C-alpha cells in the first residue's frame, strides 16, 4: 500500500466533516472516521450502530450500497477528481456485520478515464479481518 498523503487524508476528513452537519441522506457517513488516504484509495472506519442496522441487528444491505456509493465518491474527490454521477453500482454480500462491530471500508479508483471512473469498495470486520461485502461502482465524470 502506498504511503498516506497528508493532503488527500485532510481532504477526506473535510468531506466527512460536511456529512456531520448535513440532514440529508449523506448523514449516514457522519460517524465514519478517516483512517488512510493515498493516491487512488481511501479507507474509513465505521462502528455499526442501531441506526445502521436492519431488524435483525446487522448492517442494512441498502446502507451498504449507499456506503459503496459514498466511499467510492470520496476516493475520487480526495484525489481531485469531480464526484461524477452513478452509471452502475453493485454489491456482493458475504456475511453480516452485527451492531457493535467495527468495519474498515476501503475504496479504490481502479481506472480513471476522461469521462468514466471505475471504482471498488471492500468492507472488512476490523477485528477478524473477515470480508463482509464488496462493491463495484462506475461513474460518469
From TrEMBL:
Pfam families for this protein: 4HBT (PF03061)
SUPFAM superfamilies linked to this entry: Thioesterase/thiol ester dehydrase-isomerase (SSF54637)
InterPro entries: ACOT13, HotDog_dom_sf, PAAI_dom, Thioestr_dom
Location of this chain's protein in the cell: Cytoplasm, Cytoskeleton, Spindle; Cytoplasm, Cytosol; Mitochondrion; Nucleus
Source species, domain of life: Eukaryota
Catalytic activity: decanoyl-CoA + H2O = decanoate + CoA + H(+); a fatty acyl-CoA + H2O = a fatty acid + CoA + H(+); octanoyl-CoA + H2O = octanoate + CoA + H(+); hexanoyl-CoA + H2O = hexanoate + CoA + H(+)
Alphabetized GO MF terms: fatty acyl-CoA hydrolase activity
Keyword Magnesium: no
GO BP term, pick one: lipid metabolic process
Domain Thioesterase: 56-130
Keyword annotations of the record: Acetylation, Cytoplasm, Cytoskeleton, Hydrolase, Lipid metabolism, Mitochondrion, Nucleus
GO cellular component terms given for this protein: cytosol; mitochondrion; nucleus; spindle
Subunit structure: Homotetramer. Interacts with PCTP.
Assigned protein family: Belongs to the thioesterase PaaI family.
Task of the protein: Catalyzes the hydrolysis of acyl-CoAs into free fatty acids and coenzyme A (CoASH), regulating their respective intracellular levels. Has acyl-CoA thioesterase activity towards medium (C12) and long-chain (C18) fatty acyl-CoA substrates. Can also hydrolyze 3-hydroxyphenylacetyl-CoA and 3,4-dihydroxyphenylacetyl-CoA (in vitro). May play a role in controlling adaptive thermogenesis.
Name this polypeptide is given: Acyl-coenzyme A thioesterase 13
Species per Swiss-Prot/TrEMBL record: Macrostomum lignano
Amino acid at each position: 500500500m502506498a504511503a498516506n498523503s497528508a493532503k488527500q487524508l485532510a481532504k477526506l476528513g473535510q468531506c466527512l466533516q460536511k456529512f456531520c452537519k448535513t440532514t440529508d441522506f449523506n448523514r449516514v457517513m457522519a460517524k465514519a472516521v478517516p483512517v488512510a488516504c493515498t493516491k487512488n484509495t481511501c479507507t474509513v472506519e465505521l462502528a455499526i450502530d442501531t441506526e445502521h442496522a436492519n431488524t435483525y441487528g446487522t448492517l442494512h444491505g441498502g446502507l451498504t450500497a449507499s456506503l459503496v456509493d459514498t466511499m467510492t465518491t470520496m476516493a475520487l474527490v480526495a484525489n481531485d477528481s469531480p464526484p461524477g454521477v452513478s452509471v452502475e453500482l453493485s454489491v456482493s454480500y458475504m456475511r453480516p456485520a452485527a451492531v457493535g462491530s467495527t468495519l474498515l471500508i476501503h475504496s479504490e479508483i481502479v481506472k480513471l478515464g476522461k469521462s468514466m471512473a471505475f471504482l471498488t469498495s471492500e468492507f472488512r470486520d476490523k477485528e477478524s479481518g473477515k470480508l463482509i461485502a464488496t462493491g463495484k461502482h462506475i461513474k460518469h465524470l
